[in-house]
Amino acid sequence: MYMFKYVTKRLGLMISTFLIIMFMCFVLIKLLPITVTVQMGQDANIIIRQLEGRGYIQNAVMDPATQTWSYERVPIMIQLGNYLNRIFSYGDFGIGVNIPSYRGRPVISVFLEKLPPTILINLYSTFIGVPIGLGLGILAALKKNKWQDQLINILIILLISMPSIVMGLIIQYLLCFKAGWFPTTMNSGYEYFTWSMFRSMLPPVLALCLGSVAGYARYTRAELSEVLTNEFMLLARTKGLTRGQATLRHAMRNSMVVIFPSILSEFIGVLSGSMIIESMFSVPGVGRLYLDAINTVDYDFFMLLSGFYTLVGLLAGIVIDISYGFIDPRIRMGAK
Amino acid sequence: MKKKVLSLLLASAMVFSMAACGGKDDGSSGSSEGSSESSSASGSEESSSSAPVESSGSDEGEANTPAASKGTVTYRTYTSVMPSNWNELTYEDDNDTQILSRISSGFFEYDFKFEDGKKFNDDGTVNAEGILPGEFDVKYSAATKLEDVTSEVDAKWGYTDEQKKTGSYAWKITLREDLKWDDGTPIDANDFVYSMQQQLDPDFQNMRASTFYNNIMIKGARNYVYQGQSVWVDNGITGDPGYTVADLVKGEDGTYALADGSAVKFTLTDILKQCSDYSVTDLTDMGYLDADAFAALQELADADGHVPVTDETIELVAKLIDTDEWGHEPVENVPLYMVGEVTYGETPFENVGLYAPSQYELVVCLDAPISCLKEDGTLSFEAAYSFASLPLVKKDLYESCKQAPQAGADLWTTNYNSSLETSASWGPYKLTSFQSGKSYEMEKNENWYGYGMEEYKDQFLIDKIFCEQVVETATQWIKFLGGEIDAIGLDVDHKEDYRDSKYTLFTPGTGSFGTMIYSNLDVLKTNGRNNGILAIEDFRKAVSLYLDRDDFNTTLFTSNKPLYGLLGPSYYHDVENGGVYRSTQQAKEGLLRVYGYTRNDDGTWTDGTNKYATYEDAYEVMNGMNRPLAKELVEAAYKELTENADKYGYDSSKKIILLYGTSIDNANTRRSYDYMTKFFNELVEGTSLEGQIEVQFDASFGSNWNSDFKAGAYDLAVTVGYSGGAFDPCGFLQCYMDPAGGLMYSVWWNPDSEMLTYTMPEGDFDGAGQEITMSVYNWYCCLNGLAESRGCAQTYNWGEGFAPADVRLLVLSRLEELFLNKYYAIMTTSEYSASVYGAKFKQITDEYNVFMIFGGMQYLRPMYDDAEWAEFVKANNNDLSAEYKKVE
Q1: ipTM (interface pTM)
Q2: Structural domain tally of chain B?
Q3: Within-domain flag for B122
């Protein structure tokens, strides 16, 4: 019951936080100056009327002597009302107006179209990275201070100290270009579950997961090394468990209190995509979208993406907190 | 269509900082950049690898013969920014034209000119060897006939007898009868009329509507788009004839209005604009303005600087402009300082000058004439340049794509031509796949009329075009060297390796860039940067004369070259005769004068030290520099600054800060900033200003960099400028002397108040032999045939085809010289791009042709089909770098 109350309370707080953040985002983005750039072949009057027509500005007047426009911003609260009205009445999150690749396209459909590659790349990265990372960490912990541990430590240092952009370049140059094992960029199309598509996703997956492998291995080694020296491990061995059984059933579970949330938070974090890796391998994901939305002041994209990532971040906090209780029964969230 | 694409090219660019498609120089870019895919393959010799190519060999004729492709031929390219909207009515930039240019056609189009007119060899292949370098032909494509019907159209279009006599205002286009959409739906003249109605629909405010009242000025088009809107229109620069006080009607409250009841007011900003760099205080101190009169007007002004027109204010304005310094402007000129509110009434589409008299005939009625036919009745270059096509949308599809306004908005939108499902083609290719943010593919449109025409035989040999978004330069190169894409722009990092490759070709562009110096004293003296010195012409001139443009471009770019004028070497002033503007005597002498050379009475030239027998000799050595004079000018500017410290807001205890503004902080902008810092330090070294100037960097301006510069938020906009249409150098002046165009960087300068007197040469044209004094703006309008439609005081028409090319050249060079002498823009850089073209394709010619580039997709010769190419790449161990590094 206390868990239910705890979750309910956290959800309530989450919703309030979400609403406050979204309100702030809306107001702040709308407070930014509205760019009116007129290029050759364009009519400033049309650009201004488009802004008026979209409900951003009103009472636009041009001074014919200076050719400059003055206008009033439509009150932000009215714009907010219209925005909410569109979402709740029509499920309309708006259209892109400033990001060159997505002008005139419904922001929700662009986002949903671009989310699967990002999620898949990161899922594959997690599926590959976690077992390898944990395995290396366990091996290093079990062989602490032996040559295997030293070797793994060297590998970890190498992988951790190498930025993902360098990792990506090395993979692209050696595996894609020189060896020709993989295509240089991800395949086009929406058939994500074919071998050809999977093969084309492997370079970005490797570029993403090798860094994570090092992180997981380092965490696991550190936690496991400490847990292995605890007295309950001695007890486990004395009650007849083999070293492997004691390590897997007792030591690992205790180590996971720290490791699992880091895996979870990393996975949730990667929903936002990796701007550099996606650009490098032409992954049609969401990596650049948020930055582009901010740089070009594309209101509807910005609000949708802000909402999504805020929600993901807040939910992740709750899930991670709750996960402690499952991993370690001694931890009871909300209990007094 | 082509006109629109070209006009789009005339776009503002900040070279260092904006995103771009591939295929160009240095990562330099701007909205003027195009996609790499506009180019084709290259290499004048066949590859030495084991290529199964039937046309290999060193013989040029053989080398230009395409492989008899057994299989599919795909042209693979990349873009940094995916197109999002290839709707002719609404497209926004070059990225969108990647698709648009292939799914649409033109009434008329350019073609190579062939020796003896022989386009095809006896075996039916294109006569590549017969291509005449630099020459061009204009041909009918989707149209079969063009007639000047100015004297025949209905009286309702209001052409005067003079206009009927001159002609070129109304044109009848006869369409081919086999035009079809890609699904086989026939196209006729009514489709063009429907499309124009949609283009101009005021509910949509379509981005490209302005093409048809700003560029191709179709009668009634502006009124149709603007209907229901009220705008303030300057009585000095307008599209309407000016009005006098007698034309106004006095109301009961003593306020005057226009005859139709519309409001009319004086505008103080207009009055101040006559005074360029000076503040109100300066002007009154100098006796330029009557202080009392101006103060009285200011009291009556509203927030926008508008003052009601009453007997009292008429008197005040008359008093204001009647001072000695002002030049005792006559009272008749008082209305020139008025603005009138114009409300565009409801306009039926029947009043727009485009209609279909029959199923396959279109008539277009224009406000400004376009000379589309030569005297012998053949098509002039203007036909394909200005009048290539009209917008066309597929009616049923377009109607289904209309989207009603969102809540809180009243703007209609459309998603026509923004996805595979909403696309329709009447061009040589059609879209077959599109993945947003990733790639698109096109295939031949079998319903295109051209495939049945003899004229297009042995052309369009590419079966498919595949374009992928590849943002990272490193990835682009890996794909190119791995044979996955077929051409790439040469960037700084690869310039040493591939600059001399036999696969590399250089293409001159029309981009003309320079350093814009903010010079509005009113703003400078109050901006807190202590840099009123920028308003002193001597200082700006010193900057120009000290700059080593050759070193500037070598240091900062891959292939761009020095530029000394507003216009680079790609502009043709006399298209029909191949006259390159920059190569003319007038243009060269203009630059010589700007950079301190003078002509002696005996016809020789001198730079003060050396003497040159001819202008050619002087021009040969001219590099834009005169460093001793530059130092003297710095001293002179310093003297002016310190002696009039109050006027310039100068505080000698503080450093002079010059703010280098840019849109982004990256290696290119930092390199440019470092260059400018070093430059200014060297400029003032050994002068009284040594150690007094500091250049600061600010990359916070983002996409507002243009408007922020105009507002004075920063002082130096480095390597910014425009790319224009190569055949329209006179129109390009819009960027520097047409306030109505909204493109001028130097917004503080008023070309409508700057007068220029010039004696026109004798000849058979309007104003021949006369000494003419009029404003710079008026000269610009006359030169572009806009004076009448813009209601200028003088309405000479020296537009293309209405005055001899050499006369237009004289005026153009005079205006260029006049603006350069302001030193608001220190021109530095002429655009050149370098691309490495893969071995899979070959252009029909390696000779750059401004009309046809290297022949484009139309003439691209495939040397391998897809399967053969894969074998070729494999045979090279998937690494073509060694091949592409080969020199001739």
Answers
A1: 0.86
A2: 4
A3: no
